[in-house]
Amino acid sequence: MYCLPDSSTRHVVLVVDDTVANVAVLAEHLSANGLEIIVAQNGEESVERARFAKPDLILLDIMMPGIDGFETCRRLKSYRETRDIPVIFTTALADIGDKVKAYEVGGVDYITKPFHVEEVFARVNAHLALQAMQRAMAAQNRLLQQEIAARSAAEEVLACRTKELARSNAELEQLAYVASHDLQEPLRMITSYLQLLDQRYTNRIDADATEFIAFAVDGAKRMQTLIDDLLTYSRLGSRARPLQPTSCADIVSDALLCLRAAIEDSGADVVCGDLPTVMGDERQLLQLFQNLIANAIKFGKGGAQVIRIDAEDAGSAWCLSVRDNGIGIAPEYFERIFVMFQRLHTRAKYPGTGIGLALCKRIVDHHQGRIWVESELGQGSVFKFTLPKVGD
Question: N or C: which end of the chain has fewer CB within 10 A?
């Protein structure tokens, strides 16, 4: 008689032997050491029970009626559900050839009769521990393979989406460029004819008509400025150049030269600290500094304007800043100001297209950096951005 134990809580050992005394001794000792025992008295019976019960280990006698232990082991190894169960042979055969054959047919160990139950338990315990480690490693390997497969699938999806996004961005840049470029000629024509109307019919039309023409001319000029800014924005991606060592001091000097008239008109005092050489696109960095300094001038609050440009070592990059003592920005607008066409003031009060800071952000993104603002209403603003170091 035998019963099928709960193999999830205790190890199950199938003992195959046609000698009742041997089975009794093994069953008593192994059970006393916490193992569940299943018994079979011949090879055919052991294969059937092993396939059904799936024991953790098999103690298999070689000399039995019917098929012997060697053939029994071959059959066990031929079935998917039993081929990984370790088999320890037990026999009175002492010939070296029998021992070799035991390993050839798939056995993991060999115990010679008459055996000592302590030795049997020690070997059984060792192989059960080894099997447990192998199962744990196999489970970990399966999990690892699943993780690798999932990660590979995710990377493939990400690569496809990145490729599609790059293609979409390229198409949008090209569309923006073509649209902006093609709009310039008809807009020039509209502006020219409006100005011609203003010049030729100044004394032939009433004040309202003159005012309407002035509004139209002003709108056309603002549209021209917007188109120019859109062209600049769209060209950033297509005309970007490889980053190379670039002196920020030289770039700022050129930017101040371009803004000389605005600086003189505002009376702003621009102070520069020691500025580093960074890895950058010279043309884009000129646009970046020029936009930030022009913003600082535009949003002054009257009185003595002071604009300070500094840099500090941020470890893996340089952190540069453009500080002013202007009107400042409320915290809820810190992110919004870097979005295209987002304006916090009317055009009548502060002219512009709302593209300047979006352009700055795109330039900094191209340089693998980040840009942000620190400000308080009425207390001025400091725009900070990071640029890569030379050699990093």
Answer: N
Residue 320: partners with Cβ closer than 8 Å, 6 or more residues away? 248, 275, 309, 310, 311, 384, 385, 386, 387
Residue 359 CA to residue 329 CA, distance in Å, equals: 19
Residue with tokens 């300094």: 293
- Count each helix (H run) and each strand (E run) in the chain, helices first: 10, 12
DSSP state of 87: E
**117-200 and 20-32 helices cross at what angle (nearest 10)?**
50
Quote the CA–CA distance of 338 and 360 in Å, as a whole number: 8
* Amino acid making up residue 13: V
Q: Provide the residue type at 170 as one letter.
A: A
Helix (H, G, I), strand (E, B) or coil at 179: helix
Handedness of CA 358, 359, 362, 367 (dihedral sign): negative
In whole angstroms, what is the distance from residue 11 CA to residue 57 CA? 8
Chain-centroid distance of CA 216 in Å reads 50
The Cα–Cα gap between 83 and 51 comes to 10
For the segment 309-356, what is each residue's pLDDT rounded down to a tens digit?
A: 999 999 889 999 999 988 888 888 788 788 765 555 444 444 555 677
Q: Are 195 and 218 in contact (CB under 8 A)?
A: no
Q: What is the pTM of this model?
A: 0.48
Strand, helix or coil for residue 323: strand
Crossing angle of the two packed helices 282-298 and 248-258, in degrees rounded to 10: 50
**At 374, which helix (H) or strand (E)?**
strand 371-375
154-175, pLDDT tens digit by residue? Answer: 888 888 888 888 777 676 666 6
Q: Is 153 exposed, middle or buried (0-12, 13-18, 19+ CB in 10 A)?
A: exposed
Contacts (Cβ under 8 Å, ≥6 apart) of 101: 70
Q: 109-112 and 244-247: which strand pairing?
A: unpaired
- Per the listing, tokens 């979409």 go with 168
Please give the Cα distance from 324 to 191 (Å, whole number): 36
**Angle at CA 374, nearest 5°, toward 369 and 376?**
165
